Amino acid sequence: MDKDLKEILEAYKLTNGNPEELIHGKGPRMIVKENKILGVKDAEGIILDGKVVDGKIVAKIIVKEGYKFDTPMHMCFGVTEEEAEQIVDVEIILEDNSEITLMSHCSFPRAKNVKHIMDGKITVGKNAKFVYKEVHFHGEEGGVLVKPTVKATVKEGGVYISELTLTKGRIGFLEINADIDVEKNGVVDITTKTYAVKDDKVIINETVKLNEEGGKCIIKSRGAAKDNSEVVLKLKIEGNAPYCKGHIDCAEVIKGDAIVESIPIVVVRDDRARITHEAAIGSVDKKQVETLMAKGLDEDEATEIIVKGMIGE
Predict the structure, then answer these.
(1) Which of 25, 41, 88, 94 has the CB geometry, 3.0–4.6 Å to 21, for a possible disulfide?
(2) Residue 190 above 70 pLDDT?
(3) pLDDT at residue 302 is higher than 90
(4) In angstroms, rounded to a whole number, what is the distance separating the alpha carbons of residues 25 and 134?
(5) With the CA atoms of 89, 95, 101 and 104 taken in that order, what torsion angle do they form, in degrees rounded to the nearest 10?
């Protein structure tokens, strides 16, 4: 097996990926190590194009009208070097009445000075459904900058579901910027799970605009921050049309000298729209800790179990 492919498969395992499925599975896939494309496989109903332009990965994915994939598409973006810069420009288009789940695995196990910067443009067509799940593994050095920027449009009756999980290894510096426009009866469901330790820093800046009648949205954040880490959540929903519904839901556990700042922004421009928010930030419930300590765990072990349960580990 090629040395680069072997290294990236080892890194891929750390995101709970199955190398056998990545190499020989049925679904389409793209494998990228640093700024090299190691493999691309498309399938009937999808156009998958990837190339390197001036050291940047440029990818375009088009799911054709009416095609619905039972098998997820896998994208593996890894950096196995200690120092590297990986820049990705990707455009994803789901044509009308199509459906796909995209599993994105991002692994940087040895990172001391690694940058992973992604600019994404996503269009979800009429009555199409796009499910995007992104799982990260970072090493223990904290030397990673991850900065995805997404501009998305969800057309009439379309569904956009996104879940990012970064709970293993050090986060380093994570900055997410997302701006999503939703048309008539479109649905958006965004979840972010993070576990920040030491001097990790997380900035999440997400805006969803419900621009036409019947649009729905929920933005959820689940996480923990301890030691000297910092988490800033700037989550915004605009209700700009009749019968739109939106909700922002933040739940964060804090410990030590960490700082969590939640800034929900609700904008309503039509009196028939309803947008709400709630946030719960604080320490772990003492009764839960005491219950686990009664079973023989010390306080740190009990707290760790409760936190991991909350973020779905």
Answers:
(1) 25
(2) yes
(3) no
(4) 18
(5) 0
99, 128 in Cβ contact below 8 A? yes
Tell whether the model's pLDDT for residue 50 goes beyond 70: yes
State both tokens at 158. Answer: 């379309």
Per-residue pLDDT, averaged over 101-111, amounts to: 94
How buried is 195 (Cβ within 10 angstroms: 0-12 exposed, 13-18 middle, 19+ buried)? Answer: buried
Residue-wise burial string across 4-30, b where 16 or more C-beta atoms lie within 10 A, e elsewhere: ebebbbebbebbebebebbbebebbbb
Give the residue-averaged pLDDT of 206-228.
96
Given a contact cutoff of 8 angstroms between Cβ atoms, the answer to whether 221 and 233 are in contact is yes
Strand partners, 59: 50, 90
Interatomic CA distance for residues 80 and 82, integer angstroms: 7
Domain layout of the chain by residue ranges:
3-284
C-beta separation of 139 from 171 below 8 A: no
User: What are the CA-CA distances from residue 179 to residues 32, 51, 190, 235, 293 (Å)?
Assistant: 26, 26, 12, 10, 44
pLDDT of res. 309:
78
Does 313 score more than 70 pLDDT?
A: no
Degrees to nearest 5, angle at CA 230 with 188 and 293? 95
